[in-house]
Amino acid sequence: MGRGKIEIKRIENTTNRQVTFCKRRNGLLKKAYELSVLCDAEVALIVFSSRGRLYEYSNNNIKTTIERYKKASSDSANTTSVIEINAQEIEMENESVYLRTKIAEIERMEQANMVPGQEMNAIHVLASRNFFPPNMLEGGNSYSHPDKKLHLGYESIILCILV
């Protein structure tokens, strides 16, 4: 017959709590010993009772084991920092690519949907570079050709290059 599960909470009765502490402490020390022998592991166990008494087990010098632990935990903290820094550099690069794409998209939208004073400025710039015939700007908001017409509206600009 197996034992039933117990609820893990503080035992209120001091006598029962002390008895349980002694039994579990001895079991923990025994497991530490078994782990060190069976697995050839370096084990150090430190237990302080509620009264402040110290109980310890070590299959090596406990101070040497603690120093080894400190060195290992500081090395792993540095490794974690490097991993985190690399992840941040990658995240920043992805964000940079995203922002450059957004900027290019906004610039394309601005070029396609110029606001009213910029339309004519853009046409004048293009005309000065000989993209349009000079008389095109003289007719106001539209340029007529026998079979083609260019309308300058607020929503979009359709450019026809006539040769």
Describe this protein's structure.
- By secondary structure, this protein is mainly α.
- It folds into 3 domains: 48 residues, 3-Layer(aba) Sandwich (SRF-like); 52 residues; 50 residues, no CATH class.
- It is 55% helix and 10% strand.
- It has 3 helices and 4 strands, in the order αββααββ.
- It has a two-stranded antiparallel sheet with strand order 1-2.
- A hairpin with a 4-residue loop joins β3 and β4.
- The protein is elongated and about 85 Å long.
- The chain starts with 13 loop residues before the first helix and ends in a 12-residue tail after the last strand.
- The C terminus is likely disordered.
- Keywords: DNA-binding, Nucleus, Transcription, Transcription regulation.
- Its main location: nucleus.
- It comes from Punica granatum (Pomegranate).
- It is found in: Nucleus.
- GO terms for molecular function: protein dimerization activity; RNA polymerase II transcription regulatory region sequence-specific DNA binding.
| Mean model confidence by pLDDT | 75
- Strands of the biggest beta sheet: in what spatial order? 1-2
The biggest beta sheet reads:
2 strands, antiparallel
Helical fraction equals 55-70%
* Assembly annotation: single chain
Strand content: 5-15%
First-residue to last-residue Cα separation: 100 Å
Number of helices: 3
What is the alpha-carbon Rg in Å? 40 Å
- Low-pLDDT parts are 136-163
Short description:
The chain is mainly alpha-helical.
What topology does this entry show?
Layout: H1 14-39, E1 44-48, E2 54-58, H2 62-112, H3 116-128, E3 142-144, E4 149-151
Antiparallel strand pairs: 1-2, 3-4
